[in-house]
């Protein structure tokens, strides 16, 4: 089965570049933007050898897993563009639900799996990290940003030796291919990209994201470099910052960091 756009993405004017093997789909998308590519275009690879996540952490995607990026050139500020990552998380969660349902229809009796969004950019399932989103942006003209949203998903296998639990779709009983997830993702992206509407629809994106979020109302610790903030995960604000209510009643807005929930929160804080 070959990678292809979903029908909604194709009708919305997205184009597609497919690679057998590549260092990083995000890096390739940014290079194309610097060379004048304006998108919208999806880039997907059967194998990614030099991908990365937040804080330059390695994200290698072997064959069978999904590594892809979408390039959009938009006229908005970097701060507003950053909220597009929440639309990307919603699109990824929706795509995972779609392929999960399709897998259950093919194999009646398969377990119903619930996916949760972990701030700021992960999808959890089966007790581990299943997928992640990385947004990168560069100015390519006055008031024009090349925004690249990369997605990595553990379809066939989860990495070992990670500092956090990881899961794959195969681990949790969902037998689909990376090509299936990619097609569903491109269609879901086309939908949530319209809802986001250059940031004007972030209020709705925020509402939908919170409905699917992991850990709301629970104890949480966020570690960023040398500092740690602990308290209750209350919400995300209009800028996408995580709002933590500390033990002394302060409401603290956190813009970046590694999140730990529940029992793991005390471990993450050490």
TrEMBL record:
Source organism (scientific name): Nitrobacter winogradskyi (strain ATCC 25391 / DSM 10237 / CIP 104748 / NCIMB 11846 / Nb-255)
Protein name: biotin--[biotin carboxyl-carrier protein] ligase
Entry keyword Nuclease: no
EC number in record: 6.3.4.15
Residues annotated as domain BPL/LPL catalytic: 40-139
GO CC annotation: cytoplasm
Tree of life domain: Bacteria
GO molecular function: ATP binding; biotin--[biotin carboxyl-carrier protein] ligase activity
Keywords annotated in UniProt: ATP-binding, Biotin, Ligase, Nucleotide-binding
Domain annotation Biotin protein ligase C-terminal: ranges: 217-262
Chemical reaction(s) catalysed: biotin + L-lysyl-[protein] + ATP = N(6)-biotinyl-L-lysyl-[protein] + AMP + diphosphate + H(+)
Phylogenetic lineage: Bacteria, Pseudomonadati, Pseudomonadota, Alphaproteobacteria, Hyphomicrobiales
